[in-house]
């Protein structure tokens, strides 16, 4: 929350891809909906790498950020399918493999090494990573729904405008929280080594 508050406008920009994905999902129909999986991976990856850059200070215009973006796309590609089964398999996937993205961005290592490093970081305290991501998802879901309800009922916004505003403002918390989680796991791994 402090990072989001200290860099509000940059943090708010992290929610723009989520709003774009939601807008596409709300308006698309038929076979076009199959494009949502790759579109989600491409846009959510940009938000996650942006959050990692914001938390770590690594410039977005760097080779490490570009490598991290590629790793993020690979990590996020199966997530919507896993989350469609039930949310927990998707979160477990991100807990197990998702720390490869900040490993690539912050440590500047290649894709293969970042997946190995991310897996090692997750194993340092898998319950902490899984619980942290599940908590972030739950808090964002509840907060976003509450904000949507308030905007829709009391501000006389349309349903779509209220949902878009709620996503824009609240969704950056997931990306920033996951970026902070990397630092926690890195410290846990260091303390064990």
General description of the model:
Helix 5 runs antiparallel to helix 8 and helix 6 (79-85) packs antiparallel against helix 7 (87-97). This protein has one domain (2-192). With 193 residues, the chain is mostly helical. It contains twelve helices and no strands. The mean pLDDT is 88.
Question: What descriptive keywords fit this protein?
Answer:
mainly alpha; 193 residues; 12 helices
| Beta strand % | under 5%
Question: What is the molecular shape?
Answer: globular
Task: Name the structural class.
Answer: mainly alpha
Task: State the oligomer.
Answer: single chain
Poorly predicted regions are none
Relative helix content: over 70%
Element-level helix/strand string: HHHHHHHHHHHH
What is the number of beta strands?
0
Q: State the end-to-end distance.
A: 30 Å
Mean pLDDT: 88
Largest sheet: none
Rg computed from alpha carbons, rounded to a whole number of angstroms: 17 Å
Query: If helices are DSSP runs of H or I spanning 4 or more residues, what is the number of helices?
Result: 12
Topology:
Elements: H1 2-6, H2 8-13, H3 16-27, H4 36-56, H5 63-76, H6 79-85, H7 87-97, H8 100-107, H9 111-124, H10 126-154, H11 159-170, H12 172-192
Helix pairs in contact: 3-4, 3-11, 4-5, 4-8, 4-12, 5-8, 6-7, 7-10, 8-9, 9-12, 10-11, 10-12
In brief, what are we looking at here?
The chain is built from 12 helices and no strands.
